[in-house]
């Protein structure tokens, strides 16, 4: 099945901000969860598909140990550049690759574990990508993947998208909404089943995400995610005005989640684990 939804593309500067401000409070939570679910062991040969700046790959390298192997692949050069620039992880070395998930540059059966965190929803051909993941897995191999659930079930993302459309025009939030484009658990299960995976287990998981304030979170969204393209040509004064308007709407919509010195909200994802 083809998807024409906006992909997740960041230049080097935005990717650096992504690593600095979003990996710790957001994607690292999901990375620890995913690594734990696949039961990654020392000596594992791991492929991280849609690796971004490498939070999953680094955790996998530590778990796989000195005798393991970790390869990290992404289409985004900015993300890969940041990943390569970071200090080496303890454990397995990480090899970084620029490439597409639906044409993995690896031989059949090279890996014991394939991971894909919060990326499957962006792939142009999801079924082909999962078939490729299965192809590069060896006998007895395991895949683990996560995708966000419906935007309506993720209150911060939903409030942000509504505010962005309200203040920047209808459709301005398409990149944010696309993060939630593979929200139907039956569709997700069906993709794994169609790719030939066995013993598919699907669980809906909630993490509590914390930032210092609504304003901090909104500003990060406009700096370190594809929403940055909406304000790339704005002067600082204009940007501050937009952040203020959107923040006010988000704070009003999520009043129980916000205080003077904290913004904590639930974030929900489907996490799938399956065997070859």
What descriptive keywords fit this protein?
disordered N terminus, 10 helices, Rossmann fold, eight-stranded mixed sheet, single chain, 276 residues, alpha/beta
Give a description of the structure.
The protein is α/β, with parallel strands linked by helices and 276 residues long. The protein has a domain at 12-151 and 175-211 and 264-275: Vaccinia Virus protein VP39 (Rossmann fold, 3-Layer(aba) Sandwich), CATH 3.40.50. 41% of the residues lie in helices and 24% in strands. It has helices spanning 12-21, 23-38, 55-64, 77-85, 126-136, 155-168, 174-177, 185-194, 214-224, 236-253; strands at residues 45-49, 69-74, 94-98, 111-117, 137-148, 198-211, 258-259, 262-275. Strands 1, 2, 3, 4, 5, 6, 7 and 8 form an eight-stranded mixed β-sheet that branches. It is globular and about 55 Å long. The two termini are 21 Å apart. Mean pLDDT is 94; it is low at 1-9.
The gist of it:
With 276 residues, the chain is an alpha/beta fold.
Mean pLDDT equals: 94
Name the CATH superfamily assignment of the domain at 12-151 and 175-211 and 264-275: Vaccinia Virus protein VP39
Estimate percent helicity: 40-55%
How far is the first residue's CA from the last residue's CA? 21 Å
Radius of gyration: 18 Å
Biggest sheet, open or closed, and with what strands and sense? 8 strands, mixed
Q: What fraction strand?
A: 15-25%
